[in-house]
Amino acid sequence: MKAKWIVALLLSTALLASPLYAGDDDDRLTFETLVSHIDSVTAPYITGDYAVFTAEHNARFVGIAFDYENFSVIHPMQIRTIYDYDFNPVDSLYFFILKLPKTVQDINYRLVIDGLWTTDPLNANKTYSRQAGLYLSHLDASRTVPAVTEKINSNTVRFTYRGAKGQQVRLGGSFTNWDSWIYTLTETSPGVYEIDIPLAPGKYEYAFYTGIQSTPDPSNPERVYTADGRIASLLIVQ
Predict the structure, then answer these.
(1) Closest CA to 233 of 178, 168, 163, 164
(2) CA-to-CA distance for 168 and 184, rounded, in angstroms?
């Protein structure tokens, strides 16, 4: 049997949501890597921070909708065509890759196949929704999600530092004129320190302090040099 080459052909529709993958280069590379490993239809599965769904290519359209979005968005699946060495098409399938929201540990979903809402025929795990009065396909997405610095609502950022337990960890930055004695983080679990600070949209430089030593945020890869030559983290609040 000839080895297979695989390429992805996009199925687009203006009325439906775009496929879920992040816009930065690292996430796009991860997305492309995940796609390259899809060569047959299978039950949905979790890999890292992503869920992969597939469907038979025997319908004109297949979409997927999730309970955490209240089924208000139908995400169109994409088509992958499988080619042999002579670049002859030998098979095709639908697929969808979901970047898992951090707060989602269980995924309940329905497929939309040529306008018909249904459970996933490739997924034997189902749960009954009393509210909806029907069965939903279920995927266990339980995993450990590391705490990171992130925006938690429209005007608040949660700064998170991970280190040895029992420390006094402070926060300083351009929003404090680099005064590190204004904000002290709370140890919310052993070795995890957090503080919520209201910040208006803009660019901010910051660092954590233990004693007189400043440390860039390990959970934030964006780095800058401060005016006095120190390395700090860069945060953009939108």
Answers:
(1) 178
(2) 7
In this structure, what DSSP letter does residue 209 have?
E
Q: What is the pLDDT of residues 103-149, one digit of tens each?
A: 889 999 999 999 999 999 999 999 999 988 999 999 999 887 788 89
Helix (H, G, I), strand (E, B) or coil at 182: coil
Helix (H) or strand (E) holding 231: strand 231-237
Class in CATH terms, 150-237:
mainly beta
Would you list the DSSP string of 63-132? Answer: EEEEGGGTT---EEPEEEEEEETT--EEEEEEEEEEEPPTT--EEEEEEEETTEEE--TT---EEEETTT
What 3-state DSSP class applies to 29? helix
Q: Could you tell me which residues are beta bridge partners of residue 93?
A: 56, 80
Q: Note whether 4-140 and 150-237 share their fold.
A: yes
Residue 48 φ then ψ, to 5°: 65, -125
Q: Which residues contact 32 (CB under 8 A, 6 or more apart)?
A: none
Sorted by where each begins, the domain ranges of the chain are 4-140, 150-237
The pLDDT tens digits for 146-200 are 888 988 888 899 999 999 999 999 999 999 999 999 999 999 999 999 999 999 9
Task: Please check whether the domain covering 4-140 is classified as CATH 2.40.160.100.
Answer: no
